Amino acid sequence: MKWVDILKETVTQSRVKEIEDIDIDIEDDDCLRWMNKLYQIVARYPDSIHNPKEIVNEEEACQVKRAWQEKTYFRPYTKVSVPSDSPYSDYDEFYPPMVGYANYEKGGVRDDEVRFAVWDNRNSNYHSHTYFLDLSAEIMVEGRYISNIITLKIYDENVLSRVVKEICNHLNLDYSPMLEVLI
């Protein structure tokens, strides 16, 4: 073997090693990248509001990912309205009755909790819809709950449909029942 061939082989091997190192780095932060991608689906819209992020490291993000991968429940509600004895009943102009609510959730007392919910508040005066989307995770870390919550107000059914489909696809959930309740 000539010295040129030896040099080429050495350079090739070092490049392969660099690529392997990159792959290992990507695998090491898989959960955090997965979670950030999930929240970025909503965060890219200007009307989104992201409460202060408390879930920021790989271990916590993996806890969130595991919670979503466990059995998740779909809960649809339709034609929900503010009861007449509610303290908000006088504020129907500002808080119109909910006509649709769809929720994917997992968790409960003393458990990690994740939720993807959308409310449809139809304004009866204008026959228009305002959708409120909530994507949240609350996990127990060192004896206290920490959370990530992002919300979005949507006025367009097409935008709502696109966001719901993208989130459900990322979470490996069926978006059809959610959209049936809302649109």
Q: Low-confidence stretches at least 5 residues in length (pLDDT < 50)? A: 85-97
| CA-based shape | elongated
Compressed to H and E, one letter per element, the order equals HHEHEEEEEHH
Tell me the Rg in angstroms: 23 Å
Query: How much helicity do the residues have?
Result: 40-55%
Number of helices: 5
In terms of DSSP E residues, the strand content is: 25-35%
Number of domains: 1
Question: What is the terminal separation in angstroms?
Answer: 70 Å
The count of strands amounts to: 6
- The SS-based structural class is alpha+beta
Query: Strand order, biggest sheet?
Result: 1-6-5-4-3-2
Average of the residue pLDDT scores:
77
Structural description of this entry:
This protein has helices at residues 3-28, 30-43, 58-69, 157-171, 176-182; strands at residues 48-50, 73-78, 98-106, 113-123, 128-141, 144-154. Strands 1-6-5-4-3-2 form a six-stranded antiparallel sheet. The chain is α+β, with helices and mostly antiparallel strands and 183 residues long. Helix 2 (30-43) packs across helix 3. A hairpin with a 2-residue loop joins strand 5 and strand 6. It has one domain (3-182).
